[in-house]
Amino acid sequence: MDQLQALRDAKIALKRERSRIPGGVMIEQIAGKWKGFRQMVNNWLFTMDADPLEDIHNRLRRLEAAFLQSEARRRGAAEADCSTRVGTG
Fold first, then answer.
1. Same domain, yes or no, for 58 and 36?
2. Long-range CB contacts (< 8 A, 24+ apart) of 52-60?
3. Exposed, middle or buried, 12 (CB in 10 Å: 0-12/13-18/19+)?
4. Which range is least confidently modeled, 36-40, 47-51, 59-63, 73-77?
5. CA 39 to chain CA mean position, Å
6. pLDDT for the residue 44
7. Number of structural domains the chain divides into
């Protein structure tokens, strides 16, 4: 708990020190503008995609198809195994 408080105090002291340094304010302003720009680009790219979940939907369809095929193979093998047992009895 003391370490956590010490980290918080150090972060607050660093922010105070940055505000005293003339370049520190400029760095924070640039960082804020860059963050806003990055969010704007991400939002724009997100809206450009017709269906952002299309890749997930395609993967689910392929997984379902593979599962159904494996189930069909298992049933086919089980039926073949049962028919051979019945024929030998």
1. no
2. none
3. exposed
4. 47-51
5. 17
6. 83
7. 2
Tokens of 25: 């304010």
Same domain, yes or no: 44 and 65: no
Nearest to residue 30, comparing CAs of 18, 42, 20?
A: 18
Regarding whether 58 and 38 lie in a shared domain, the answer is no
What are residue 21's phi and psi, to 5 degrees? -80, 125
Same domain, 8 and 25: yes
At residue 30, what is the residue type?
I
CA–CA distance, 84 with 77 (Å, rounded to integer): 11
Q: Give the predicted TM-score (pTM) of the model.
A: 0.33
Domain that holds residue 4: 1-48
HSE-CB of 56 using CA atoms within 13 angstroms: 3
- Using only C-alpha atoms, the chain has a radius of gyration, in whole angstroms, of 31
CB 12 within 8 A of CB 19: no
44 with 59, same domain: the answer is no
